[in-house]
Give the backbone structure.
Amino acid sequence: MSFVSPLFLWYFMPAVLLAVLVLPRGWRNGVVAVGSLIFYATGAGSFTLLLLACMVVNFAAGPALEPDDWGMRPAKWRRWLLIGVVSFDLAILVIWKYAGFATEQIAAFAGLFGGDFPIAELALPIGISFFTFHHISYVVDIYRGERPALRDPVSFGTYISMFPQLAAGPIVRYREIADQLPQHRRHRLDDIAAGFPRFALGLCKKAIIADSLAPMVDACFSTPADEMTFAIAWLGAIGYTLQLYFDFSGYSDMAIGLGRMLGFRLPENFARPYSSVTITEFWRRWHMSLSRWFRDYVYIPLGGNRFGAAKTYRNLSVVFVLTGFWHGAAWTFVVWGVYHGALLIIERAFGWDATPEERHERIARRALTLLLVVFGWVFFRAADVGDALTMLGHMLVPDFAGLTDVVATALTNQRLVLLLGAAAIFFLPAHPVAGPLLESARSKPAAALRVGVMTVGLAYAAILVATGTFSPFLYYQF
């Protein structure tokens, strides 16, 4: 059940919001928890039992991980319990997400010597990368004494399975939401009024822009190597750069808006990432909840930047190899992670991670950073490393071959206008999502114009959804 499906928009979301409004305030967490499990079960089926099993293990371990001033739970015992629970969570992730990839590599190696090795074929549970990280955040934050364990299973179920962020984030660290779980807000209509415009904005970004660009991007990336051209390669790379942003940030906007309508404030996930002037800054602005998670639970525990340059570079390398692998069990994601890790190390080594003071230098660095990000997205989207290298090779060597018939057919006038308009948005001085018209300007004319634009956009997005022209969110595959 996707956020952009008629089942969700016309039935599930209104039913949950109505229940939150009319039932007693103290029932909010129960409504959200039950609704979230129904939401998950419609897409994941029997994998709901896997989610519930993980929840039982982590909830049961929570109280025993709390710091104990009376010495009833020795620090060493708590540490081993934490290691055991985190190992359990990671084992679930590794088995279902990476067993197939690992056995493929073993089978390929065995084949070199005439051997045969069976390949595991396991379906990927929806949202497993996200709810695994939520579980780890929960037990680690309790172990560190940053927040107490939850004794109420309903509140715990609300945190882990909350449907706005269950399938594709944002990754909500336990410390960020622990204080909100026991709160039962009085102004529920105000929450809906505040959250719905954000949800509507995300729906417009997804249905109008991202889904419209998708067929053109697919046509470019599926072009055979012997038909690939300079124009197709750049059209596909730029198109995917825009499609991915509007798809994923659109999901995040919808999730944050939904969370607010339910009375929760979820963390921001994007902050004009394509306007960054360094790769370091890009990772402070792109998928921010993932960056913060790896910083708090991997990078800093490894030592961060506290023990010299060599160990800092090692820690960055570990984090970005894991970041790439987290996105998918394929070498393309690993290469993408290594690529960004190498860029960060180079910036830090040469002192290029600081924001330039001169305006002309900032413009040049911004253009260079965006170019490097676009190159990286080719690895992220390509079917394999060979296809990525082929496309990058054509991007670096101009030719005058033009577009194939398939790509030219996919590049309709409407998509060309959307592509140019979406690209132009990133160079506006205001928020790149929809320009200054959708910013929180206080003047009445700006507010009225913003409401008008959003109303038209929302109506058009609803028509697209009703006609079945939507597609799954790109980050559902992770």
